[in-house]
Specification:
InterPro entries: MbnB/TglH/ChrH (IPR007801), Xyl_isomerase-like_sf (IPR036237). The strands form four sheets. The chain has an eight-stranded parallel β-sheet. The protein has a single domain (18-296), classed as Divalent-metal-dependent TIM barrel enzymes (TIM Barrel). Strand 10 (186-190), helix 6 and strand 11 (218-223) form a beta-alpha-beta unit. Helices cover 36% and strands 20% of the residues. The chain is of the alpha/beta class. It has eight helices and 14 strands. It binds fe (ii) ion. Fe (ii) ion binds next to loops. Residues 159, 190, 222, 270 line the site of fe (ii) ion (FE2).
Length: 297
């Protein structure tokens, strides 16, 4: 068990000072009409806009940056080919291109799921391989994250990936704390992913070990809908569904965990596939609950 040192980066000094609020995301290839309509309707209920693009997507980065400027939003960059838990060697040319996209978006940090994103040069996107929940994963991830941060020139925040299957039996938040402290990076809690993993693993959704997590390093949280399949023998499989509303169980887990994070800056309503009406409702619902999540700050 990690007894957290929690020194880490001065997260309060990252990015736009004092800015915190609700983030929403859309597919920047197909969803920008929805984003435009939603941004107009929600006004100041949204603060951030999540941008998930590849290192080569310069045009999408510039278009997203323009969208943010016109609506008074700040961009948060989620690269789709930053492979911090894969086996391909990291490509410095690709990392520098990711750094240019981050500059264009002026994203204060880059969010990345702890997963294999690329396999032998092929982007895995919809088929991410989540980091195995074993001790040996920590050093591998630490080395890759340190190198990526050095070349990109901006800090990373590591996110707990979705787990359609589970290898290993360690707690994801405990492993994330060890990685974040080893690499001196920040953390993103995807509450839906965490709920799914813990339910699938037959664990309580809040664990005693959550008291020892480096909450000071948590700057982002994500939430979306969840879909639970139940199989014979009690086996459950939990998927997150970005076009579904957040379930009560995930709201409750967010209420239990997020107030522990004193430097939480953004809570994202993940929404790829939603209509403008659905996304507007979602962002407003997040904004109404947000005061509870910032309460520790
Ligand atoms: Fe997420």
């Amino acid at each position: 068990m990690t007894t957290a040192i929690h020194r880490g980066p001065a997260v309060d000094e990252l990015g736009p000072q004092g800015v915190r609020g609700i983030c929403f995301s859309c597919d920047p290839m197909t969803g920008m009409d929805v984003a435009e309509e939603t941004a107009r309707r929600v006004g100041e209920d949204a603060t951030w806009f999540g941008v998930g693009i590849l290192a080569s997507d310069e045009e999408l980065a510039l278009r997203s940056a323009d969208f943010c400027r016109r609506h008074g939003l700040r961009a948060l960059f989620h690269p789709l080919d930053l492979d911090v838990c894969g086996t391909d060697p990291l490509d410095d040319g690709l990392l520098r291109a990711i750094g240019r996209r981050a500059d264009e978006l002026d994203s204060p940090w880059l969010n990345i799921d702890l997963a294999m994103w690329v396999r032998r040069g092929e982007s895995l996107l919809e088929s991410l391989v989540p980091m195995p929940l074993v001790d040996a994963a920590v050093d591998v991830a630490v080395d890759r994250i340190k190198h990526a941060q050095d070349v990109i020139g901006r800090p990373l925040t590591i996110e707990n990936a979705p787990y359609p299957f589970v290898v290993g039996d360690q707690d994801i938040l405990t492993l994330m704390t060890r990685i974040a402290e080893g690499a001196d990076c920040m953390m993103t809690i995807d509450v839906g992913h965490l709920y799914g993993l813990r339910v699938q693993s037959g664990r309580d959704t809040v664990l005693p070990s959550d008291d020892d997590i480096a909450w000071e390093r948590v700057v982002e949280a994500h939430m979306s809908g969840t879909f639970i399949r139940r199989f014979e023998g009690g086996v459950r499989l939990v998927d997150d569904k970005h076009d579904w509303p957040v379930s009560d169980e995930v709201w409750e887990l967010a209420d239990a965990l997020l107030p522990r994070a004193p430097h939480l800056r953004s809570v994202m309503a993940e929404a790829e596939g939603m209509t403008a009406d659905e996304l507007t409702d979602s962002v407003r619902r997040f904004a109404r609950r947000a005061d509870h999540w910032w309460s520790a700050s």
